[in-house]
Amino acid sequence: MSEPSSSTNAPEKKKPIVIITIGMAGAGKSTFVQRINSYLHSQNPPVPPYILNLDPAVTHVPFEPNIDIRDTVNYHEVMKQYNLGPNGGILTALNLFTTKFDEVLDLVEKRSADVDYIILDTPGQIEIFTWSASGAIITDAVASSLPAVVAYIIDTPRTTSPATFMSNMLYACSILYKTKLPFILVFNKTDVQPHEFAVEWMQDFEAFQAALATHKGTTDDEGEPTYMNSLMNSMSLVLDEFYKQLKVYLPLSNLLASANAYSNTMQAVGVSSVTGAGIKEFFEAVDASRAEYERDYLPELKRAREAREKTLQAAKEDSMNRLMKDLAVDREQNPEAAAADKWEQEDEDGGDDDDLDVNIIDRSEEPWPGQYIDITRARPHEEEHMSWPRPG
Ligand SMILES: Nc1nc2c(ncn2[C@@H]2O[C@H](COP(=O)(O)OP(=O)(O)OP(=O)(O)O)[C@@H](O)[C@H]2O)c(=O)[nH]1
């Protein structure tokens, strides 16, 4: 771990790596973020991370984030003003915040010389982050300026049934393919349920098939496989490809950590956010992800940018050509109207009305301002004792 550097141009200082924690509601994301935060503080010397909370609806986070979406957007007011339900409120709050994400990135980049890890805690309503435009914008923006890794938090005790396990893995697989970022499967709550069963299912196709066969509801009254069973069999074949990219961190004594398991890309780690077990291994996986980001993600990003530039340029040229052609035809057919054609410059120079007056606060730099004018920025007062039910 590198020491915090005081000089801004220290050549050996690596860029910090961004850990994007994603997971189903209740999987333990916030507890996990708090655990890795305290682990980093307990290092010698301490390596305090820079933490961003992106969950506008969370009532309590067990850590002090440096940037908190709740300081910028008041989720309750957003729901009230836009007449939205809980999920719509979270999505709109996230959209509003995303309009100012460049400011967040500026703050993060300003601190990047002093921190080794930047941690993002995302909303528990996983699909809001993973499948919304704002979630994608945030992930892409972060990953295009700094090395990034997705930590997909799994509630291990609630994944012991083959069907639940498979749906969780399909979700993980879809996020991996969507973000294309280095990926760590974090099997959380191993103090309650060790995750070896999951590793075995991922590494041994036959073992998963056997678990499926003995699972309740896999055959109908006549002993024939149910539709669900056939579907799961087919899906497990698909997932087998996904698992092939797996690298597993397990105690050396465990025979499952066979040499061929150490291959590439995706990694799996068992942790307990309560006891702290496995956190060291998690950081080993994070450090390995940095190399992968540089090897795989960055060149791909460059290629995609170049391709996008080319497509944009071609589209611009095409639409300009068509416009010129249309104008020429128009002038020929209607010379009087063409002569009267005027362009009002003032319309173009109008004010910047759409720009929301929303400011991002870095709590570690600025004192708590405590005064908000825009209601979308108002933070609920502690004394209101408002206890809103968590959505979802
Ligand atoms: N036993 C055990 N419980 C855990 C662990 N991690 C989290 N929990 C518990 O799981 C519950 C959910 O944890 P949170 O950290 O709030 O989960 P979350 O994913 O942030 O939840 P949302 O905010 O709803 O998305 C809490 O009761 C935690 O105490 C763990 O490693 N072991």
Q: What's the quick description here?
A:
The chain is 47% helix and 10% strand. It is built from 14 helices and 8 strands.
Distance between the termini: 39 Å
Q: State the CATH topology.
A: Rossmann fold
Helix content: 40-55%
In terms of quaternary structure, what is this? single chain
Specify the CATH class. Alpha Beta
Using the alpha-carbon principal axes, give the shape.
globular
Relevant CATH superfamily: P-loop containing nucleotide triphosphate hydrolases
Work out the count of structural domains.
1
- Using the 3D structure, state the CATH architecture: 3-Layer(aba) Sandwich
Order of helices and strands: EHEEHHHHEHHEHEHHHEEHHH
Calculate the mean pLDDT score and round it.
79
Strand content: 5-15%
Identify low-pLDDT runs.
1-8, 250-264, 367-378, 386-392
Number of strand elements: 8
The distinct ligands, each listed once, are: guanosine-5'-triphosphate
SSE order and pairing:
Layout: E1 17-23, H1 29-41, E2 50-53, E3 67-68, H2 69-72, H3 75-82, H4 86-98, H5 101-111, E4 117-121, H6 126-130, H7 133-145, E5 148-155, H8 162-179, E6 183-188, H9 196-203, H10 205-214, H11 227-243, E7 247-249, E8 267-270, H12 279-333, H13 335-340, H14 345-348
Parallel strand pairs: 1-4, 1-5, 2-3, 2-4, 5-6, 6-8, 7-8
Helix pairs in contact: 3-4, 4-7, 5-7, 8-11, 9-10, 10-11
